[in-house]
Structures are given as C-alpha cells and as structure tokens.
UniProtKB/TrEMBL annotation, chain A:
It is found in: Cell membrane. Keywords: Cell membrane, Membrane, Transmembrane, Transmembrane helix, Transport. Pfam families: BPD_transp_1. This is ABC transporter permease.
UniProtKB/TrEMBL annotation, chain B:
Belongs to the binding-protein-dependent transport system permease family. Its main location: membrane. It holds the Pfam family BPD_transp_1. The chain crosses the membrane at residues 55-88, 95-120, 126-145, 166-186, 192-211, 223-243. It is found in: Cell membrane. It comes from Jiella mangrovi. Keywords: Cell membrane, Membrane, Transmembrane, Transmembrane helix, Transport. This is ABC transporter permease. It is a multi-pass membrane protein. InterPro entries: MetI-like (IPR000515), MetI-like_sf (IPR035906). It comes from the Bacteria. Residues 60-240 form the ABC transmembrane type-1 domain.
UniProtKB/TrEMBL annotation, chain C:
The keyword Transport applies. One of its GO terms (molecular function) is ATP binding. It comes from the Bacteria. This is ABC transporter ATP-binding protein.
Length: 250, 251, 292
C-alpha cells in the first residue's frame, strides 16, 4: 500500500474521515433522519444512553472474549490433533469444513434452550463460532510445514516434539492468526445474536429494544458501538500479530 | 479449500465418521433416555422434518429466495464498485476508510436498521444479504484487481493496451480467484444474516420457523429447522465449489 | 603438469585412503521408486569413498539423482537393502545417520521467525545445549563468516549471499566431521558465488572437515575439490572420478591456468554427454506423449 493509503487507513484518520463525511452528507443530500440522523443527534442519544451503553458494551465484550478464548484454545487443540493423526483428519476435516459454511448462528437457538438466558449461553455460542475457523486454520498451517525445513531439523536429530515446537508451531502461527481474526468477528456476531434470544444487558439487547421502539438514532449509536467493539477486538489481534507473528507462511 | 468427494478413499472415512457420529448420538439419546427438549436423536429430527415438511419447505423457499436475490445483487454491486474504484484511484482513497469502518461492524448489527428501513418482508432480507455480500466481494475483488505487478501492466501498455484492455486482459483474470473467495465468504455471511434477520423480525423463512419454535421451547422443530438450513447452505456451498472449478480452472 | 601426472596423483590419493578407513563409503547404493511396471531407478550402483579431511565435489546433469543420493547420505532416505553406507568403516542401518552428518540443503531454509544468531544455533539447541551457551558459541564465529553486526537481524533483512553464509554457519556449528553441501551457491549471482567459493575454501582449510559438495557448475567443482566425481544421467551412477592436483591454497587465478583448462575440457566432454542423454530422454518422452 502507498504511504498515502496507509495514512488514510490508520484508525484515527478513518474515524475522522467517516465523521467528516457524515457531517457533510446529511445536509448536502437532505437525508431524512429515519435513514441517517445528523451526527449531533447520534451523539446526544449516546450521551443519554451512556450508562446502559457502557454496561452493554462491557457485557457483550465479556461474552465475546471468554467465548473466543475458550473456542480458540479448543480449536487449536483439535487442529493439532487432526494434523498429527491422519485418520482423524481424513474422517472429520471435511465435516468441519462443511460445518463452517453452515449458518452456525442458528444453533444459537439450541444453545439458548440448553443454557437459558445466562451469560454462559452467549459464551458457548461465541466459543462455538470461533472454534471452527481456528481448528481449520490450525490444521492447514501445521500440515503446510515446509518439507525442506522439516528434513533439515531431522538431519540435526530433532525429536518430534522439538520439530513441533521449533518448526511446526511457528510456521503455522500466521495461518492460525488468520483463523483467530476470522473467529473473533464471528464470536462477536454470535454474542450479539445470542442476546436476542432473551437477556437484559448487552449491545444486542439494546439493539432489539431500539428496533421495537423504532428508534433509528439509537440504532445508529449501537451500530457504532458494535463497530467499535469489533474494531477493538480485531485491532488487538492485529497488534499481537504485528508484534509477535509478523513473518509470512510459505 | 475444495473438498473432493470423488474417490472412495476420501469418501469412506468421512462417511464412516458421519455414520458413527449419528449412531453414537442416537444411541446416547436412547440409552440415557435424554428427553427430546434437551437433545432429540437424529431419528427424531428426521421424523420432525417429515412431519413439518409443509412449514419447513415454505420457510426454505423464502430463505433461499432471499439469499439468492441478495447474493446476485450484492455480487453485481461489489464487482462493479471494485472496477470503478480501481479505474479511478482518487475515489478508492476516499472510499477505503468508509468500507473499513463498515466492515468492522458485525453485519448482524445492521439487521435492526435495515428492518426499520425496508420493513419485515423479504425486501429487508434481500437488502441485508446484498449488503453483506457486496462488502466482502468488493474488498476481495479490489485486492485481486490490484494484484498484477506493475511490470506486467507496463508490458501490456508497451503493447499499446488501453486502461480497459489492461482491465479485461490482466486485472479481471487475476481477480478471479479472489472474487471466488469473496463469493464463498459472502455466501456464508449472507445465509447467516438472512436467517438472523428472519429471527429478529419477519413473516416467513427458516429463521422465523426456528425463532417461533424456540419461543415455544419446541426443541424438535428447532433442530429440524437448523438441519434444513444447514443442508441448504451446504448445497449452495457445493454449487459455489463447482463454479470455482469452472471459473478458476488454471489453479 | 601433464594429464599423466594427474592420474598419478589420483593413484596416490587412493592408496593413502586404503590405510585409514574412508570417512564416508558408499557400497553398491541403489534407490528405486515404485514397483515393477512403472519403476523408476533414481540412483544405481553408486560406489564412492571419501577420505577424512577431503573435499569432494559431485557434478552431474540436472535430475540425475544427485538429491536422492544426498538425502540417503544425510539419513533422510534409506538406501535400498542391497547396498550400504559406511561411516568411518561402520555400516549405518536405516535412520542411524540422522544427527551424524552436517547437512546443508540447496535453499538456505532459514527460519524467518528466528534472528540470524538464533538460526545459527538451531542445531545446537536441537542437541539440547542451553540457549545462552549456544549463542555464546555462535557469536565467536560471526567475524569469520562475515556477519559481524548482523546477529540480531532477521533473515529477510539479508542479501542472498549473507543468508547462505548464515546457513553455512548453522551447518558448521553442528559439529560433525562430515559436511554435505547441496548446491549451496546455486542461487547466487556469479560475482558473489566466486567470492563465497574462496571464502568456503578458507574456512575449510582452517576447520579441516570432510566435505561432499554437490554442484552443476564445472568451474566450481574443479576450483573447490580434491576430487571431482561425475554422475551419469538418470539412473544416476558415478561415471568418472577425477583427482584435482591443483595446488592449494587456490585463488582466482587458478581458473585461468592451463592445468585447470585441461581438466575442465575433459570433464566438460563427459558432463555434456550426460546432459545430452537427459535431453534426448525427455524428448523421447515428449514424442511418446504426442504419439499416444
């Protein structure tokens, strides 16, 4: 990307540009508030909603975060098992890939039947959604280890465990990171949808209420809040990636 | 990744695993006498699918129409926008921050807004699916269109190719694999967003079937709806994989 | 020196080798892949022996089974059971060679997530040496390998020649008396390659290890080796062994000397004959394909 492109896509500049565009576009095209309310109104609504908004943000974050971490750990575990046990991989991997393309969020309904309107239900949904992309990418990364490097290590007399730690895991790390980034977005979506099946706190709950009372301005506040939460989670992973997993998969 | 189901060597372990899973599930449910509202067995779900085939097939038809409509519109918009942006670089610089901002919002969060705009009918679902697909397709296609190196572009320019010549001979073929990836992600996202929107507010569709059954704690119908939805999206996914082989034969 | 002189030198080297057991000896080594109807023989009937401290270069047309032979010597691939590989006179069963030979593959295969220093110590870490000790040991070699000041850099920040030196250092730090190098300078430009060759000889003369060096560059083979072996086209076997009696230490001027030219003329004829065979083989295969 060019220097100009990189500056324009840096988070603060992006936020600023979008806000400016918003401020300009509403009076310019005379957009009705039921489509896009003026930014000032949205801000006022956010201030009014502040305590609920903060509580909801925190709750949805917790659900997403706990579910994601658990799902990622289990996913990495399964992916590793698949990578080293060929039979497991041949039997279950296609099922996993298929399940990934299924509207897994629909399973959320079942989870809510099992766990009721508890935070656990949302955590389980978030876990479940993060699990598949992480497992699939872990397997992909681990089984794509450069055979030349593997041969080199075994010529040094490395044990399987040493090869795993020194070679397989680091060379799979970029692919696993991709899976984690996919997973965290899905976890957040899962937590929000999970709240719709019934709860009292959370960004999803507020969204549902705003829909019932047809409060477009409030919906916009919540969309921004969801976007912020999504960007924060994704951004945190990207930072970790840039700091610790900056090399490329080959 | 394409799943190749041809060849017994790949199909056999998967088939055995699937059969084993289903059998173990059924056996566990029967052995421990798990009540259906906790976990119905596969046979119970099948029976329910047969019993409720009327509402399920009606719902499936609605959902498939919405997904297909939204998918087609979204793909068109996404590809068209990507081409415009790559032909007019200043526009791209302006559009990118907006697209990034939109893309960081989980697409399900737009559901209430679009329901308020387009009402509870099919239009809102089609709009949501189109939106979800367009964003993914736009980002992927753009990446693909910008893939060719400047040397290759310069080579074509030295042959006297115009901007459009470069687009059709070099950029679009190069973007094809990216477009297909975008379509695949977009398909998954659009099915999810359509079902979620139907759950949140609608007159029909599998999402509505599942949602109503959840409200009545009718676990069997919930499972039946989920299974039908899954099968449908697997079918769509299979179509896309076949399309992938046709479009990107050189891979 | 006449060509007879070179022949005599060869005799002398061989008689000396029979007193001390050869460092590496291959006896009737074969490698066949697949079963009868579509069996390919990659390596057939290879006999060779390398004396301790000797620098042997192996040259042959591309696809002649050099890499297969190499992988067998490194212990990564077992030879077919009718042949054997001996190390200092000891026969080596399958897998026993792993960890006994310092092996450097064609590509540098540096680990992108490790610094230059940690790449160099890879083999030491595999052997269980503590990271601190391994680093201290490697650091002392950096000036000699021309990598001073690059300890904390990552491989992607280095030039091709430097990466190759890091890979060589990694191989040297895996302190085995026998070093296998598979076209280590193949990917470098001609100038860098010539510099690296002289540098490698310098290192070799100081550390006195036994080296088996694979290349497809005749000049390189003659310039470096005490002995040049020529492999035939597939199935690969040793066709000719030429002892290089050029005086050491060798410098760039050796390449233009009459003796060098004479050896090169002879080897070139032999290697070209094999290259033509591979070419003809692939043309035949293409013809067969178009006919069917």
């Amino acid at each position: 990307m060019t220097m100009r492109g990189r500056i324009l896509t840096s988070p603060p500049v992006t936020v600023l540009l979008v806000a400016l565009a918003w401020l300009a576009v509403v009076p310019l095209f005379n957009i009705e508030p039921r489509y896009l309310p003026p930014l000032g109104d949205v801000y006022a609504e956010a201030v009014k909603l502040w305590p609920d908004l903060l509580a909801g943000f925190w709750r949805t974050f917790l659900e997403t975060f706990i579910g994601f971490i658990a799902g990622a750990l289990i996913g990495i575990g399964f992916g590793t098992a698949f990578a080293y046990v060929r039979l497991l991989e041949r039997a279950f991997f296609p099922i996993f890939v298929a399940l990934q393309s299924v509207p897994v969020i629909a399973f959320g309904a079942i989870v809510v039947i099992w766990f009721g309107n508890t935070i656990l239900a949302k955590v389980v949904i978030a876990l479940y959604l993060a699990f598949f992309p992480v497992a699939v990418n872990t397997l992909r990364g681990l089984s794509g280890v450069n055979p030349g490097r593997a041969a080199l290590l075994s010529s040094f007399g490395a044990s399987n465990w040493q090869s795993f730690l020194m070679l397989a895991l680091p060379s799979a790390a970029p692919v696993i990171m991709t899976g984690l980034k996919l997973g965290i977005s899905l976890s957040l979506a899962g937590a929000i949808v999970g709240e719709w099946f019934g709860d009292t706190v959370g960004l999803g709950v507020l969204l549902l209420q705003a829909l019932y009372f047809e409060q477009v301005t409030r919906v916009w506040v919540l969309i921004i809040a969801c976007g912020l939460l999504g960007a924060l989670l994704y951004g945190a992973l990207s930072l970790i990636e840039r700091r610790y997993v900056w090399w490329q998969f080959d | 990744m394409a799943i190749r189901l041809n060849g017994l060597r790949t199909a056999l372990p998967v088939g055995l695993a699937l059969a084993g899973l289903l059998l173990a599930w059924e056996a566990a449910v029967r052995l421990f006498g798990v009540p259906a509202f906790v976990l119905p067995g596969p046979s119970g779900i099948l029976v329910t699918i047969a019993e409720k085939s009327n509402i399920l097939s009606a719902g499936l038809l609605v959902t498939l129409t919405e997904v297909a409509g939204g998918f087609a519109i979204g793909t068109f918009i996404g590809v068209a926008l990507a081409i415009v942006l790559v032909l007019v670089p200043p526009l791209e610089l302006m559009a990118i921050p907006l697209v990034i901002a939109i893309n960081s919002v989980p697409s399900v969060a737009f559901v209430p807004l679009v329901l308020l705009w387009f009402g509870l009918g099919m239009a809102s679902k089609i709009a949501l699916a189109a939106f979800a697909v367009a964003i993914v397709v736009l980002l992927n296609t753009l990446q693909g269109l910008k893939r060719p190196e400047s040397e290759a572009i310069n080579l074509l320019r030295s042959f006297g190719a115009s901007r459009f010549g470069i687009l059709f001979r070099l950029r679009l073929p190069a973007a094809m694999p990216f477009l297909v990836t975008g379509l695949r992600v977009g398909l998954a996202r659009s099915t999810i967003v359509v079902i979620v929107a139907e759950m949140m507010g609608g007159y029909g569709g599998l999402g509505q079937v599942i949602y109503q059954a959840t409200a009545m704690m009718d676990s069997l119908t919930v499972w039946a709806g989920v299974v039908v939805a899954s099968m449908a999206s697997l079918g769509l996914y299979g179509l896309l994989v076949a399309l992938d082989r046709k479009l990107v034969w050189w891979r | 020196m006449s060509s007879e002189g070179i022949q005599n030198g060869g005799m002398a080297a061989r008689s000396k080798a029979s007193v001390i057991p050869p460092h590496l000896q291959l006896v009737n080594v074969w490698k066949r892949f697949g079963s009868e109807p579509n069996r390919t023989v990659a390596v057939s009937n290879v006999d060779l022996s390398i004396a301790p401290g000797e620098f042997v270069t192996l040259i042959g047309p591309s696809g002649c089974g050099k890499s297969t032979l190499f992988n067998m010597i490194a212990g990564l691939l077992p030879p077919d059971s009718d042949g054997s590989i001996l190390l200092s006179g000891q026969p080596q069963p399958d897998g026993a060679l792993l960890g006994k030979i310092a092996f450097m593959p064609q590509k540098d295969l540096l680990f992108p997530w490790r610094t230059v220093l940690d790449n160099a110590t890879l083999a030491l870490e595999v052997e269980g040496m503590s990271r601190r000790k391994a680093r201290a040991k490697a650091e002392s070699l950096f000036p000699e390998f021309g990598l001073m000041g690059f300890e904390r850099h990552y491989p992607h920040e280095l030039s091709g020649g430097m990466r190759q030196r890091v890979a060589l250092m990694r191989t040297f730090l895996f302190e085995r008396d026998l070093i296998l190098l598979d076209e280590p300078f193949g990917a470098l430009d001609a100038l860098t390659r010539a510099m690296m060759q002289r540098w490698l000889l310098d290192i070799w003369e100081r550390h006195k290890r036994t080296v088996l060096f694979i290349t497809h560059d005749i000049d390189e083979a003659i310039f470096l080796g005490d002995k040049v072996m020529v492999m035939t086209a597939r199935p690969g076997t040793i066709k000719q062994t030429e002892t290089i009696a050029l005086p050491r230490p060798r410098d760039a001027s050796v390449i233009t000397s009459p003796d060098f030219m004479e050896i090169k003329r002879r080897l070139l004829a032999s290697v070209e004959e094999e290259s033509m065979k591979t070419f003809a083989l692939s043309r035949d295969a293409a013809d067969r394909k178009t006919m069917s």
